[in-house]
Amino acid sequence: MGDLCRRLKDVSEAGIYRLNCPAEDLRASATEGGFIVFEADIANASGKGEVLAELARAIAAPDWFGHNWDALADALGDLSWCPASGYVLLLHGDPSGEAVLGDILDATISFWKLNGKAFWVFIA
Fold this sequence. Notes:
There is one protein chain. The chain is α/β, with parallel strands linked by helices. The protein is 41% helix and 19% strand. It has one domain (3-123). Strand 3 (86-92), helix 5 and strand 4 form a beta-alpha-beta unit. The protein is globular. The mean pLDDT is 93. Residues 37-123 form the Barstar (barnase inhibitor) domain. This is Barstar (Barnase inhibitor). InterPro entries: Barstar, Barstar-like_sf.
């Protein structure tokens, strides 16, 4: 098991980080550790609707997904359709333009930590 894979398994360190390695290395290490990698490109999204649509696509959101912030929070806190030992969300583009998204991601990370799983967010 590689060093990055070991670090990903450290639930206490899970959080939001700038990606500082090649995306291929992150994907490989996450897969090695039994994680699912969700990859979303929000760089050119214009507004909440496009951000939500891209995130729903990335996580293969179920039919009940309502395309609003509450639905995103519910989906990220469920992920029963994607069982894994942990999760990595690789975002292409900076989510700082959507303050609510940052709050949802922080809450998601905390929720999964309480449940003994790592949920990482990397911004590429």
